[in-house]
Amino acid sequence: MNVYIPTPFRKLAGNQAYVQAEGQTVQEVLEHLARRYPGLATMVFDQDRRIQAHINIYLNSQEIHSLQGPDTPVRDGDEVAVIPALAGGQVLTPEQVMRYSRHIIMPQVGPVGQRKLMAARVLVVGAGGLGGPAALYLALAGVGTIGIVDFDVVDLSNLQRQVLHQNDDVGKPKTQSAKETLLAYNPDVNVVLHEAPLTSDNAMDIIPQYDIVINGADNFTTRYLVNDACYFARKPLVDAAILMFDAQLTVFVPGQGCYRCLFPSPPPPGAVPNCAEAGVLGALTGVIGSLQAIEAMKLILGIGEPMAGRLLLYDALSGEFRVVKVRRDPKCPLCGDDPTITELIDYEGFCGAPFPGRDEA
Amino acid sequence: MTVEVRLTANLQRLAGGQRAVQVEAHTVGELLERLDHMYPGFKSSVLDNGQLHRFVNIFLNDEDIRFLQQLETPLKDGDVVSILPALAGGQSGP
Description:
The complex is a heterodimer of chains A (361) and B (94).
Chain A: E1 2-4, H1 7-10, E2 18-20, H2 26-36, H3 38-44, E3 55-59, E4 62-63, E5 79-84, H4 94-99, H5 101-104, H6 110-119, E6 121-125, H7 131-140, E7 145-149, H8 174-185, E8 190-194, H9 203-206, E9 212-215, H10 220-233, E10 237-243, E11 246-252, H11 259-262, H12 275-278, H13 282-301, E12 310-315, E13 320-325, H14 347-351
Parallel strand pairs in A: 1-5, 6-7, 6-9, 7-8, 9-10
Antiparallel strand pairs in A: 1-2, 3-4, 3-5, 10-11, 11-12, 12-13
Helix pairs in contact in A: 2-3, 7-8, 7-13
Chain B: E1 2-7, H1 11-14, E2 20-24, H2 28-38, E3 47-48, E4 51-52, E5 56-60, E6 63-64, E7 80-85
Parallel strand pairs in B: 1-7
Antiparallel strand pairs in B: 1-2, 3-4, 5-6, 5-7
């Protein structure tokens, strides 16, 4: 059968996450393991061949003391996991260790990275096509606090792509539907709802409460607001937009360029259609929202190369991903050398379009 | 100089649904003239008084032409030019 070896013990077991061992009971399996890996023996057993008190043993996700202890019989195909209590900081519960095991076994995450995810606070602007899969994967990964800003209610036409909402949710506030779905997937996370349009009045109250912002807004007015507020609050912004079969994604790190460096001003109203007018391939939102979750997790974990300074272009019809450069514009009115925008402005005037939802009852 | 021009989303409509077009031109500016000749009205959706609209970016290969020589940026055989308007989509539109 397979025995799961956690990261701290892995070097004692030939750097393997899973090793094979045999026996009729949990005790016999561990003894077999100990004979093969003597270093592991001293970690798991005390001098009397009893399992050390700070080590928990799981058989198929159940702690063995809730079964028959070390004498619990095992069968072919069972999985035994050796889980030590972790020193320092917040300790992962046995359930968390099992739930997040496929992340924890990767050295780039490990228990320390998992605790970073659990301590992280990510704001998702818009519980729709992009925000849905982004929030979903963050919740599955155990990102501790997920904030959701939305004012809308679930409409039947959302269900072609918006994975947080189901048929019975039509008519329900999107924030509420999102929270129910995320908690059903993982009750271990804290979902904070901001049920209002994001505006100049509330953006600087909401955004500073978070570490990272994921932008899934459907309009330019909100996009410029989120960009500026993230810059003022010094928060990284994982930005993406989609239309029809095309998508754009990048990460704006304050001081390394912003949305205004890329697009200095919005198109006049009507010049670029939105998804309601031109359509969008549903599964495209899943691809790009998932990429946003990945970029947020990379930032939280401090691993890999964030998409800062690079714009990913995905053309679903040709099946091509391309990357072009995004530069900080020294003439940018927000983050340039001589900024003229030093606080939030009138975005409705700037974009010639109201914040959606503001004029709705 | 034959270059490939990639068009995003709504700009494809102006080009009869084409996502990629082969165009002969020596500079980006000349390329836009050629596109306008092929697809009348194309130029006005990208340029405003001879300047690039501020919600449209043109990339030569992976570089924004604003950081090269703008519309005078020279082209060479095999270059890929992407014309990219800002997109807003994410959520549903109300």
